Automatic annotation (TrEMBL):
This is Tetratricopeptide (TPR) repeat protein. It comes from Kaistia hirudinis. TPR repeats lie at residues 104-137. InterPro entries: TPR-like_helical_dom_sf, TPR_rpt. Residues 1-26 form the signal peptide. The lineage of its organism: Bacteria, Pseudomonadati, Pseudomonadota, Alphaproteobacteria, Hyphomicrobiales. Keywords: Signal, TPR repeat. The keyword Signal applies.
Length: 188
């Protein structure tokens, strides 16, 4: 089974919606509650934490994202899932706790969250930093192209589309289709 961005978004949103109905977490006193987002498809719905908090598997509770309880990989996974689920401010709070900010994926999802919140130029800046580290990252190239579309910079978006096609070897990869749809004015 191929996991697509749209599948991740649908799964994360379903978990968030289910998590919002889970009883007692808001009253747990451990930072949990229904007001936050999800950490992705690996988190059961009752483990949805408030903004600035993340689920700690070892501790089995929500902890402050900057508490040192989670490593960079865990923070990145949860920040990415929050961003893809549409919880951009929550994602930024979690990604801000990552110690190694010189990571292409961390920079990509910081940029993604900023772009989705309307800070397109800030997002584009983060995508460029990410591509300086990993110029072949298809998701970063897609998101950069979508940022260019949002900013009305269509020619630059088309250049990203061309680069994605070269990296994929054809036009059948998901990132190519998503950016082509954005260029055609179709919603994400």
């Amino acid at each position: 089974m191929t996991i697509t961005t749209s599948w991740v978004k649908r799964t994360a949103l379903a978990l968030i919606c289910l998590g919002a109905m889970a009883p007692a977490w808001a009253a747990s006193g451990s930072g949990g509650g229904s007001g936050g987002g999800s950490g992705g498809s690996s988190m059961p719905p009752q483990q949805v934490c408030n903004k600035g908090w993340v689920w700690s598997k070892p501790l089995q509770r929500c902890v402050k994202a900057n508490s040192g309880s989670l490593d960079d990989k865990q923070l990145l996974e949860q920040g990415r899932a929050l961003a893809l689920a549409g919880y951009y401010e929550n994602a930024l709070a979690v990604l801000d706790a990552v110690q190694n900010k010189n990571d292409a994926i961390v920079l990509t999802y910081i940029g993604y969250s900023h772009r989705k919140m309307g800070d397109v130029d800030v997002g584009i800046g983060y995508y460029k930093q990410a591509l300086a580290i990993d110029p072949n990252n298809l998701n970063t190239r897609e998101y950069l192209g979508e940022g260019y579309v949002s900013a009305g910079r269509v020619e630059e978006a088309k250049l990203e589309l061309s680069t994605i096609e070269k990296l994929c070897g054809n036009r059948s990869c998901e990132q190519y289709g998503d950016l082509a749809n954005a260029l055609a004015g179709k919603p994400e």
